[in-house]
Amino acid sequence: MTKIALLDYGMGNLHSAGKALTNVGADVIITQNPKQIQTCDKIVFPGVGAMKDCMAGMTKFGIDDVVKQAVFNKPIMAICVGMQALFEQSEENGGVACLKILPGHVNKFDTNLLQQNPELKIPHMGWNTIHGIDRSHPLWQGIAQNTHFYFVHSFYCIPKDPTILAARCEYGLDFCASVIKDNLFAVQFHPEKSHTAGLQLLKNFVDWQI
């Protein structure tokens, strides 16, 4: 059974994510202990809330260093703010330096752009479709183009390297919904809240062989 460290740094939806991972066959350990994280086969890096608090929580428990080290030797799945934290810089909270694992930055949805679409609100909250996925990749097995996933976010990632873009979504603009680079997989949406499709995606991660 795949042993997964679900990172607890005060910013994740740990109960829902842990239950969903258990349902698809993972042995889940909710932890903030760097040594315990290192013993696990894979890492899930969740996140909700403000980026400044996210980075402070990671630094407090040393999880920032653990994630940077694990990028070289373990499969990692980052969710929502966890995905945003992988990049260099976020506009949130007046500007926050992030983990700098991936080149790129995180911007807030442009209110002027959304004013042209009065039905759109910030945060982007609810079900939306993703597209542009490579269904030949093991992480997208069983996931169709234009599948619905559940989003809750006001900021979106802009990767500098277009080759890592693994899925896109439309919300006033076409934005990055997922990235894949080697053993690193990240999604802006919440698979643990996305019912059948979300469970399939989590199962694909649990079964993923690097």
UniProtKB/TrEMBL annotation:
Reaction catalysed? 5-[(5-phospho-1-deoxy-D-ribulos-1-ylimino)methylamino]-1-(5-phospho-beta-D-ribosyl)imidazole-4-carboxamide + L-glutamine = D-erythro-1-(imidazol-4-yl)glycerol 3-phosphate + 5-amino-1-(5-phospho-beta-D-ribosyl)imidazole-4-carboxamide + L-glutamate + H(+); L-glutamine + H2O = L-glutamate + NH4(+)
Q: What is its EC number?
A: 4.3.2.10, 3.5.1.2
GO BP annotations of the record are: L-histidine biosynthetic process
Gene Ontology annotations for the cellular component aspect, listed alphabetically? cytoplasm
This protein's UniProt keywords: Amino-acid biosynthesis, Cytoplasm, Glutamine amidotransferase, Glycosyltransferase, Histidine biosynthesis, Hydrolase, Lyase, Transferase
Q: In which pathway does it act?
A: Amino-acid biosynthesis; L-histidine biosynthesis; L-histidine from 5-phospho-alpha-D-ribose 1-diphosphate: step 5/9
InterPro entries linked: Class_I_gatase-like, GATASE, Imidazole-glycPsynth_HisH
Residue span, Glutamine amidotransferase domain: 6-206
Q: Which domain of life is it from?
A: Bacteria
Q: Which SUPFAM superfamilies match?
A: Class I glutamine amidotransferase-like
Coiled-coil ranges per the record?
A: none
Q: What does this protein do?
A: IGPS catalyzes the conversion of PRFAR and glutamine to IGP, AICAR and glutamate. The HisH subunit catalyzes the hydrolysis of glutamine to glutamate and ammonia as part of the synthesis of IGP and AICAR. The resulting ammonia molecule is channeled to the active site of HisF.
Q: Share what the entry says about its subunit structure, partners included.
A: Heterodimer of HisH and HisF.
Q: What is the protein's given name?
A: Imidazole glycerol phosphate synthase subunit HisH
- Which species? Moraxella macacae 0408225
Q: What are the leading ranks of the lineage?
A: Bacteria, Pseudomonadati, Pseudomonadota, Gammaproteobacteria, Moraxellales
